[in-house]
Every structure is written in structure tokens, then in C-alpha cells.
Amino acid sequence: MTQLTPAQTPTIQISLINESTVLADTDVAPVVAALQKQVSNDFRPIWGTDAELMIVPKGAQPPAGSWWLVLLDDSDQANALGYHDLTTEGLPIGKAFVASDLKAGTSWTVTASHELLEMLGDPNINLTVFVQNSTTAGILYAYEVCDACEDDSLGYRIDNVLLSDFVYPTWFESFRTDGSTQFDRLNKIQKPFDILVNGYIGVFNVTAGSGWQQQTTEKRPSNLLHRGGIGTRRERRSIPHELWINSLPQRKIASNAQKEPGRSLHQLLECGPCISDLGQTSLRIWKVREKFLKFVDRLVALAGTFVELS
Known about the structure:
Layout: E1 11-18, H1 25-47, E2 50-55, E3 67-72, H2 75-81, E4 93-97, H3 98-104, H4 108-121, E5 128-132, E6 138-142, E7 156-158, E8 161-163, E9 200-205, E10 212-216, H5 233-237, H6 250-259, H7 265-270, H8 275-278, H9 280-309
Parallel strand pairs: 1-2, 1-3, 3-4
Antiparallel strand pairs: 5-6, 6-9, 7-8, 9-10
């Protein structure tokens, strides 16, 4: 496989912002160092994109033009503070929900690695691979580089920090035969579109028009539209980009953190004076977005009923 040299590789500036209440910056520093090695030594030669990671100190502004990787407790905290679908400048943003991982007994460092690599691989969350099954049928596969091999048990360590495995571009190439080449970093996947234990991939059946669904190890889509939690890449992929919301400026996020520490988005919306902190325009767009998601759910249910009747 042809590998790019550092001189040929674009470098993205990534601001790592720690908003989690369960991690100190001293906990994060060694993880950022390991992530830097993963991106530059493992990911860059295969995918052709490099990144320079930097921790943004508490109260400081992320450098202009940088993409964000934000460590948060959960999606409620993300929305309450004002972290949404893009950075303040409308650039890519990734989120890792640390407290949610700890509660579930999963590794937040694997999640951070997963989100970082997928943001670098498909920053606009709109890339797909089309596999045509016949002259009139086909399936779109989401261009996500970690979903198929995301389980903690499949990860690997750099400087004793557990990080996510990731697929190679060959994983998306249907002409490849079993065992003909390397399909992932740890060489555990043996064929294109193969999904390992607890893995998944987003699929869109263009013939059925059933929207984005999650295909699992069993090689069949689930019977519900799995858009993921609010703010996740799966959820954002199912949302038209005109409904995406920029994050609030850092000074406003800091103000929200001081005024409403630990409060959920639902609690903030019930607090009249707090609505202005979220921004009236963002709030209106968010409500339209929620209505759109409910509409999509109804369409998917109707499509499923039609398929069963036919």
C-alpha cells in the first residue's frame, strides 16, 4: 500500500478542550500525547491526513481555525454549555462523553481516539461508499473509520494508553478478496465491510429509502433508525446540514458553565432567564431539528410497514 510522506500530508490543528468534571487536565495530557503518536505514526501514513493536537487551558480561547475535540461528561452537558454540531467558526468538532463511558464501564480514551480519527477521516460527516447490488439497487456505507472495530477489546496501547483500532481504505473496496491485503491497523479484519464483535456501520438502502440504519455483526440492519445520542456523529449524519448549529463562543460557554454547572439542557430550557444563554436563534433551530427527527422516524415506520405488506 502506497504511503504518503510527511511533506505530502496536510496537517490539521486540533484543540482539545476538557470540559469534563471527572477529568483534570493532568489526566488528559498523557492521553493527548498518545493520540498525537497514533495520528502521526499510524493514521497519517494510511489515510493521508495528519494533525497537531494541543490542550486548551481552562479559560483560554482555542486558536482560530482549529478543529475541536471536546471531552464532556455527557450529551446533556454538551448542549447546556453550548457545544453543538460545529465549532464557533463553523469547523468540525468531535465529542467524547467521559462520564457516560465510565458509567458504562467502557474506555473514554478509546472513545476519544475513535472520535478524533473519524473526524479526520470524514470531517463533514457526509462521505459514503456506494455498493451496487443490481441495476436498480444499492447500499451506501458511511465512511466511518472506527465503527467496524470499535470495541475496547480490539484496541491497542501507545504508552499504556488504550486507543481504538481503525480500518484502512481497503475496507471500503468491495473488489478485495478475503485475506488479500490489510483491512485494519491490527490486521484483525479479513475482508471488506467485515464487522467485528460489538462493531457496526451506518448503511443507507437507497432502494428502500429507509434512512440511515445501523448494521451490526449479524450483517443485517436493525429495525429502528439508530441515529445515536444527540451530538454524536451518527445523529449528525442523519440531519441536513442546514439544521446544524454552531457552538457558542468560548466566553459564553464559560459563562454557562459558571451559571448552570451540571444542569441538563431540559433544565436550562425550563429556566426562562437561561434561554438567552443558549441563543434564541440556536434554540429555534434546535426545535426545528427535533421536529425533523420525529418526522423522519414516522417515515421510517411507514416504510417498514409498506415493506411488510408488500
